[in-house]
Specification:
four-stranded antiparallel β-sheet
Amino acid sequence: MTQDEMKRAAAQEAVKYLSKGDVVGVGTGSTANYFIEELSKWGGAVGAIASSEATASRLKSCGIPVLDLNEVDEFGVYVDGADEINHKLEMIKGGGGALTREKIVAAAAQTFICIVDETKVVDVLGRFPLPVEVIPMAASYVLRTISELGGDPQIRKNFVTDNGNIILDVHGLSIENAAEMEQTLNNVVGAVTNGLFANRPANIMVVGGKSGVQIARA
Ligand code: 5RP
């Protein structure tokens, strides 16, 4: 089974958690794209809340209405991939640069289902460089501050987020206490969002693997 087949298997499984008439939050990335295909085949969602412009246009091209989060009081399920996920269902996200909108949609959802292939499951977060979205005028201040915290931040080249900001990818971290690190980075002025999803972890992890799909709950 290829990595893409494992991603698709996880996406297929996630659709089973939906009910007809749901509004569904939809993440960004290749695994989320498989989920959009499955959502479109299933046909039961009345609309979706997109975590990026790329996801919004993909949803629309599949005929799924895209709703404004401000017009939806409450919704049940947010489905998204991750760059890394640990056994507490804490994640690093933002490899695709959509971390801020992903964090907003995840915060508003009752249930976060993280769909990954088995290569994304780790014991300790941090081998994948941690993305941090930064307001451009704060770039060198945030770079210095994160370096003082022990990371090695590098500006993502030729990349602007949907919010008009830049991304710093922070290398060299071994994140034992993800919730604390997320809070610490939240306090860096000029950093809009960091890619640690620990204070709002996933509720359900769906892992596509060579020997089938495994489910874990927080
Ligand atoms: C985008 C993300 C993605 O969920 C993450 O990068 C995983 O991507 P993929 O499903 O393509 O492996 O956080 O900002």
